[in-house]
Amino acid sequence: MLDSAIKEELRNQQILPVFNTTDLTFDIKRLEIFLSKNSQIKNIEITLRKYNSLEIAIELKKRFTNINFGLGSILSRKDYEIGSNEGFCFFVSPGIILDLVNLKVKNYIPGGESISEFMFLLNNDYKIIKFFPSNLAGGKNKLISVESILKEAMFIPTGGINLKNYMDFISLRNVLCVGMSKFDE
Ligand code: 3PG
């Protein structure tokens, strides 16, 4: 359900920056500095947490034309539809939006933290799953436990992951990349 080119890029970049917006001027500077030091980053998730996050996301997308921007904190079909109409590349939820799963929406990355959620998503052809909140839901050990059972699943663990601990996750076979809001700290 995720475009294979984006999937490969995520695998290569190892970290999916989860970008929480502040204000446009600051956000542009922050991204310029980060991208100047991290040329391997091709995909960034911008969370829709603030009243003006979408507006900022649209501006960032216009400025950083070499980056595929996705939207995060997608909580409803409406959030997805607005983002899709604006031309964003992928869409990430902290949980499952049933409507989107039933519609087999492409480039949608649903979230889950339990084995039943993982099974439900796999049975609905969503094999790339945001594992959230990783730090509270079992972290690395949970992913190791399910690896030999849920063979098709590839996870994007997110929540409590930082530049000091992310390699613990990247080394796992069932991890595509990690999500991280502290990507430049
Ligand atoms: C998210 O929105 O994906 C998470 O809040 C990111 O978690 P982190 O801030 O612990 O990286």
Keywords:
185 residues, alpha/beta, TIM Barrel, 4-stranded parallel beta sheet, 3-stranded parallel beta sheet, 8 helices, 9 strands, 18% strand, binds 3-phosphoglyceric acid
Could you walk me through the main structural features you see in this protein, from its secondary elements to its overall organization?
By secondary structure, the chain is an alpha/beta fold. The protein has one domain (4-180): TIM Barrel. It is 39% helix and 18% strand. The protein contains eight helices and nine strands. It has helices at 4-13, 24-37, 53-63, 77-85, 98-102, 115-123, 139-147, 166-170, and strands at 15-20, 43-47, 68-72, 91-92, 108-109, 111-112, 128-131, 154-157, 178-180. Strand 1 (15-20), helix 2 and strand 2 form a beta-alpha-beta unit. The longest helix is centred in the N-terminal third of the chain and has 14 residues, at 24-37. The radius of gyration is 15 Å and the shape is globular. The N and C termini lie far apart (31 Å).
